[in-house]
Structure formats: C-alpha cells, structure tokens
Write a structure and sequence with these properties.
- By secondary structure, this protein is an alpha/beta fold.
- The chain folds into two domains: 93 residues, Urease, subunit C, domain 1 (Roll), CATH 2.30.40.10; 286 residues, TIM Barrel (Alpha-Beta Barrel), CATH 3.20.20.140.
- The protein has ten helices and 16 strands.
- The strands form two sheets. Strands 1, 2, 3, 4, 5, 14, 15 and 16 form an eight-stranded mixed sheet that branches.
- The protein is globular and about 65 Å long.
- The two termini are 23 Å apart.
- The relative contact order is 0.16.
Length: 381
C-alpha cells in the first residue's frame, strides 16, 4: 500500500481536491479525499503541494503500428491489398518497444487506443492498451475496442487508381452498405446452422450486434452526414474520428447520440479535407453538447503533445474542465473503459500523473507517471 499526501488532485470529473490524499492498494485507488486514515503498513509519500491528474488518454493513435523514423519497415498500419480488410487486427502489428511508448509515459499518457490507418473503407479491429510493457498481450485494456472505417480522400486516393471501389464518395458508401448486408446475411446463416467461418464478416457482425462500435474516419461535413445516415440505416454504435468540419453541423451531430474524437488539430493542412481545421471545432461541439475527445493521431502529431493540444484548445476558448475531460474521463467513455480508468476514484486503476505545476501551463513538467500504482516514468531517470 502507498499513501500519497498533500497534493492538489484533479479528479478528472470536474472536481478538484485541495490538500488531498489518496491510498493505493493492489494497483487501484482505495481511498481519495482530505481525511483518510493512514494504514500502519502503508508507505507514505509527501507530494508537497504538487498537482496530480488522472493518467492521460489518447483515443486515436497508430502507436507501434506506424513506427516513426523507420520508413516502410515500420509501416504496419494499412493493409492496402484490398479496400475492405475487416479481418485484420491492429493487435497483430504492434511493436511495444517502439519509442513512442516511452514518449507517452514521459508525457503522462497511460492509456491509448491503437488502430489501423484510414487507407481502407474498412480497415480492421483496434485495441486499447496501457503504455507500459514489452508483451502487447499483457498491456491490453480492451480488445477489440472497435472496427476502423474511413470515408473521403484516403480510400479514394489509395484504391481508386487501382480500379477498385471506391473512386468516389458514392462508392465508399455503397461498399459500406454491401459489407454490412453481407455480414447480416452471414450472421443469419450461422444462426441457422452454417459452420463455414469468414473472419471479415465475423468482425463486421460484432458491429451489427453492438459488441463494438464502428469508428469512422470522417473530416468533411458531408462525409460526417453520410456516416450518420449509415448509422440510422443499420443501427450500429458509432464514434466519429477527426470530425474536422464538425463545427458546421454540430447541432445535427448532437441529434445522433455519438461521441467524436477531434484532431490532430496541431498538424498542418496537408490535404483538402483539412482546409477548415481549427480549435473552433471543439468550441462548437461543446456548445452543442456533443461529447468529444482530443487526439494527436500519433505519429501525425507526436503523442508527447497530447497535453499541449489540450492547452492550445483552452488558449482558443475551450474551458479547462472540458479540455482535461477530453483527455481523461470523456476519453475513457469514448473507449468504453471509464469503469476502469479516466478519473481518480476508488476502485479504478491507479493511473495518475504528478506535475510540478499547473498542467495547463506549458512550462510545467511531468515529474512522475504511474500505471496500476507503479511508477513507470520519473523525471531525471
């Protein structure tokens, strides 16, 4: 048991505990508050007024499947041999020794969702991991955590020149419908005694049964509307990934009971779909009541800049509470793991960050990062 005392604690749910204490037992938060009895056998650590936040969460990354600096040898993020590859799993391509994991721990990022890229109309399954470990199977928090899909420029650019569907946005939507219907028919066949397995249709079936959400890459407002149309037609759980032009239709998005991830807003306007990229998207979504997370889309923006992204959002008008939630509790809800991480509460994993100053001051640094109650980064070591 470890007893931490004398800290300013951002719980992650909008509340702050001044001069707070918390007890960790068996890798979880046991007690949190101002008046906690110190067990006799507990190790006591005085944080001397430092600030504590929940471990940060990035909901949309390609960590370990798109290894920075390695060129083609480190690119396991897009299986472009076909425009639909629902049968592949990001889990099978992750290198947990990639340097981005150490960067994440150094920046206080304790949980990430890792997914295939956006080259394919349906790209494959994704996984939620803790950022500590060398064997990926031992790092899993949720698997699978969703099925990746994509609209817009990327599938058109990658598969259109190969004379595959889709050369147009019409073709992308049509292929979605075809695959969803094939999966529905496959599911009926299995239920009536069929035994010939099809991994692609099995994975799409998980979406139809609402075991996992479809997480769809959509930048432009018209693509977002198409995605919401598909949700209405087939009644699946959905998150919108990127949502770059979401500010144009924020109230419409709010009518559809979806969560969105926004980012990487710190990146350049590298393609037409990003022409209207900006922090104003978050402001409009907050005003409309759309739950959102902030993402780096690592390695598009380095995962070490997740907190920086939140700071810039606040600089441009987002509230601090909303910005912190977007990389802690709201992010955990986006991933369906909020029962385990995302806030400092009894019963949750003891994932937290110790800062030497206000985390919304860019000059502040992470002093320590803890995952499951274990210190996995300490400044100066």
């Amino acid at each position: 048991m470890i007893f931490f005392t004398n800290a300013k604690i951002y719980l992650g749910n909008g509340n702050i505990v001044e001069n707070g204490n918390f007890l960790i037992k068996d890798g979880q938060f046991e007690q949190v508050g101002t008046s906690i009895h110190i067990p006799k056998r507990a190790k006591v650590i005085d944080l001397k007024g430092k600030i504590v936040t929940p471990g940060l969460i990035d909901v949309h990354t390609h960590l370990g499947v798109h290894e920075a600096g390695l060129g083609n040898e480190g690119q396991d993020v897009n299986e472009t041999s076909c425009e639909v590859t629902a049968q592949v799993r990001a889990l099978d391509g992750i290198n947990p020794r990639e340097g981005g994991f150490a960067d994440a721990r150094k920046a206080g990022v304790t949980t990430v969702q890792i997914m295939p890229g956006s080259a394919n109309i349906i790209g494959g399954e994704m996984v939620v991991l803790k950022t500590k470990g060398h064997i990926v199977d031992q790092m899993i928090l949720r698997e699978p955590s969703g099925l990746k899909a994509a609209t817009g420029e990327n599938p058109k650019r990658v598969h259109g020149p190969k004379n595959r569907m889709a050369e147009t946005r019409m073709g992308i939507a049509a292929r979605f419908r075809e695959k969803l219907i094939q999966a529905m028919n496959y599911q009926l066949k299995i239920e009536t005694g069929g035994n010939e397995r099809n991994l692609e249709l099995e994975n799409i079936g998980k979406v139809l049964r609402k075991e996992i959400p479809l997480r769809i890459h959509a930048h432009r407002a018209d693509d977002i509307v198409t995605v919401l149309r598909l949700k209405r037609e087939f009644d699946f759980d959905l998150t919108i990934e990127h949502c770059t032009e979401g500010h144009h239709i924020a109230e419409f998005i709010a009518q559809h009971d979806v969560r969105v991830s926004v980012g990487p807003t710190m990146s350049s306007r590298s393609k037409v779909e990003l022409a209207d990229k900006g922090w104003h998207t978050l402001i409009a979504l907050e005003k409309a009541g759309v739950p959102f997370s902030i993402t780096t889309d690592h390695p598009v923006v380095g995962i070490e800049y997740l907190m920086t992204s939140a700071i810039l959002a606040v600089k441009n008008g987002l509230t601090e509470d909303a910005a912190l939630s977007a990389i802690t509790l709201n992010a955990a809800k986006h991933l369906g793991v909020d029962h385990q991480v995302g806030s400092i509460e009894p019963g949750k994993d003891a994932d937290f960050v110790v800062w030497n100053g206000d985390p919304f001051d860019l000059r502040s640094s992470v002093l320590q990062t803890f995952i499951n109650g274990e210190c996995v980064f300490e400044k100066g070591l």
